[in-house]
Design a protein that fits this description.
Elements: H1 35-48, E1 54-55, H2 67-77, H3 92-106, E2 116-119, H4 122-133, E3 139-144, H5 148-156, E4 160-165, H6 178-191, E5 199-202, H7 215-227, E6 231-235, E7 261-266, H8 267-270, E8 279-283, H9 285-298, H10 304-316, H11 320-341, E9 354-358, H12 368-379, E10 381-382, E11 384-385, E12 396-400, H13 405-418
């Protein structure tokens, strides 16, 4: 498929002097308040007053990174030659390592020279990828609710946004019809309005709902995008975190995927390396190389010792993600079972490190920000309000599985005490 990539247009810089009373920040002037900040500030205030707030809000992994990664980082950092600029697209050995990991895990063959580039975390890679693929006058389709950057990345690039409702699709009794229902909603989002979307953004296991799909779903998405000459961007942040023995599929396993699909893989969750900011864009060579070209103007790559440590980790600690998955599933089961005991029935997610919960019936008069504020104030538990994941998230809250089972059990006792209408 022949693709045309729009250059990002920037207005001429204005020259401000002391006589100018104010500045205009046009890319951020229309951004709504970041609702997660509201709950975070309440949490900070409560802790300053002495409260032991159990933080199940921000999805910041608490599990230590693999020992081998830490040792190799320290070793590589001792070598002065590693202190210089590196390669924006990643060291060749690092790209070969992620190619090997994909071949072992999903049976996907990738050319490390043309079909892989390193990114400084998947959030950075996704944001700059939207600059490559979209411009003013274009449109993108994104599920709703979604991880916030999936919504705002296309908007930052100046594109129009269409949303596919996700709520109702991730509940266990409805998973059998998930593919059919999602594809029907996707077709509607494509057909309504103009211009026709150029990009589809998906992410499974899904944040925040925890929905997991199978390879048939990925094949139908690929077929849909090939027929319409669209690019599908799959954020595979929770690639290795599928529950009940399920291995989430890579979209690159689908037949014809490399004609229209790229995938973002991150070591943040699978290897518990959040602060390392190590991720990759993989798939369609034309799209990957377009991002390589843009990033050559923007950065000189990750700190080289981090790349070296990541390379060794991918090659020598490839079973570590299985340990991570077991930990998150154990925490998930503890939380789901405990919520049921106090009268808050929540379906178990198919994967990810989150639990997506409808606001309990006795508290439905509160919106998600008000309910999460109540949780901090009366229960000493911090959650993420559903509204933070777009309008489709209202009426829900998200639990992050970032505390151990004992802390989760303490949080459940707090909820039982602070939510007397349950039960």
């Amino acid at each position: 498929m022949s693709l045309t990539y729009h250059a990002v247009r920037y207005p001429l810089h204005r020259v401000f002097t002391a006589s100018v009373p104010s500045m205009e920040f046009r890319r951020i002037s229309n951004l709504p308040p970041y609702v997660f900040t509201i709950i975070n500030n309440l949490k900070i205030e409560a802790r300053r007053s002495g409260a032991d707030v159990i933080d199940l809000g921000f999805g910041n992994p608490d599990i230590p990174s693999p020992d081998i990664a830490v040792r190799k980082l320290a070793e590589a950092a001792q070598m002065p030659r590693n202190h210089r600029y590196s390669l924006s697209r990643g060291l060749p050995k690092l790209r070969e390592a992620i190619a090997g990991y994909y071949l072992r895990t999903w049976g996907v063959e990738l050319d490390s020279e043309t079909e892989i580039t390193n990114t400084i975390g998947s959030k950075e890679g996704f944001s700059h990828l939207m600059w490559v693929l979209l411009d003013r006058g274009d449109a993108a389709i994104v599920p709703s609710p979604s991880y916030p950057i999936h919504i705002y990345g296309p908007l930052f690039a100046g594109a129009d946004l269409r949303q596919v409702p996700m709520n109702g699709l991730s509940h266990p009794e409805q998973r059998g019809n998930f593919t059919e229902d999602f594809m029907s909603r996707l077709t509607t989002a494509y057909d309504i309005g103009w211009p026709k979307p150029r990009v589809l953004v998906i992410s499974f296991p899904h944040n925040p709902t925890g929905a997991v799909v199978d390879l048939d779903f990925m094949q139908q998405v690929v077929d849909f995008c090939r027929e319409r000459e669209m690019i599908v961007v799959h954020d595979f942040a929770y690639a290795d975190v599928g529950f009940d023995g399920v291995q989430p599929p890579s979209i690159l396993q689908a037949e014809g995927a490399k004609e229209c699909a790229v995938e973002l893989y991150s070591m943040t969750k699978s290897f518990s390396m959040a602060g390392w900011r190590t991720a990759f864009l993989l798939g369609n060579a034309e799209v990957v190389q377009a991002l390589v070209k843009l990033k050559s103007y923007l950065d000189y790559g990750m700190f080289q010792p981090v790349q070296i440590a990541a390379t060794v980790t991918l090659n020598e600690a490839s079973d570590f993600p299985k340990e991570i998955c077991r930990t998150y599933e154990s925490r998930c089961d503890t939380l789901i079972d405990g919520l049921a005991r106090i009268g808050w029935d929540v379906p178990k997610p198919g994967g990810s490190m989150f639990v997506w919960a409808p606001i309990p019936e006795p508290y439905k008069d509160l919106d998600s920000v008000e309910f999460c504020s109540l949780m901090v104030r009366d229960c000493d538990v911090a959650l993420s309000p559903g509204l933070g994941f777009g309008p489709g998230g209202e009426g829900y809250v998200r639990f992050a599985l970032i505390e151990n089972e004992k802390r989760i059990q303490q949080g459940l006792r707090n909820l039982k005490r602070g939510l007397p209408k349950l039960g």
